[in-house]
Amino acid sequence: MLTRSVTVRAPAKVNVQLAVGGRRPDGFHELANVYMAVSAYDDITVSPSDRLTVTVSGPGAEGVPADETNLAAQAAALLAKHAGIEPAVHIRIEKHLPVAGGMAGGSADAAGALIACDALWGLESDRDHLMSVAAALGSDVPFGLMGGTALGVGRGELLTPLACAGTFHWVFAVAGFGLSTPEVYRAYERHRRQMGSPFTAADIPAPRPSPALLEALARGDHSALAASLSNDLEPVVTAFRPELARTLAAGRAAGALAALLCGTGATTAFLARDEPAAAHLARRLLASGSCASVLAAHGPVTGPRPI
Ligand code: ATP
Asked: Residue 106 C-alpha to ligand 1 middle, in angstroms?
């Protein structure tokens, strides 16, 4: 029987560590990125069409391109190109993840589109092939495909899965605005120049994951994880968007075990002891008026799955 459509649910990520090294000659920064996939999702549905088209709906649809520049469309086009076929598919994205929020929503959509198109077209691509297509699409797309918990080095795309015991509960405060990833890295570099600090990869040792953080994940130890969360971009981002410093403070005051900026922002992440504590924290954060909306989620979760 001909498959009429495939829907894949693709998770967001939080960086429990984002250590930034120097800028490489190709313009990317060396990173030690510890990723955790969390249970906040976009749904990507693909169905046969005479040409590649995209529609975006849902609470986060505004600000997402509904044309061939959409990351999910780019994923479909690149997969089709490798397979020597036309990307004759309609992609429907049900957008729940914050846009330009540092939770890799676009990368999640791209990873979801790869899995969905591969199934729709019956390609049965092996994992390594999908991973190499993902890496060509963006630094966060390989992890979008992998899910779970992983260390990403290079520009974040060279992945090693990490041991993680149990489940961690999070609340995400969605800002009323997005932040551009390249702009945040430019601000980080400007800051280093102003401080007289080195900023090229040739002059800075490659960043490394925190041993305490890796141990906290492996043991499933919430308090130890709370003590070792870190994001090198947070001081720079909160300096030019002080309202995010206020959101972080509001979450701490509302009982979060720890608070940090999600990736390049503008979403902020708060660790809670358990699910009821996360629900309580989400209510208090929303009531504080320091964010536009909240998402409660747990992690790690698996990568994109057909539903
Ligand atoms: P990261 O955490 O990987 O830095 P992000 O979460 O900050 O990413 P995204 O939401 O992935 O940012 O999107 C960044 C930009 O990419 C958006 O401003 C939007 O214009 C563009 N974009 C293209 N395709 C998508 C998509 N499917 N979903 C969201 N944004 C997309």
From this structure: 4
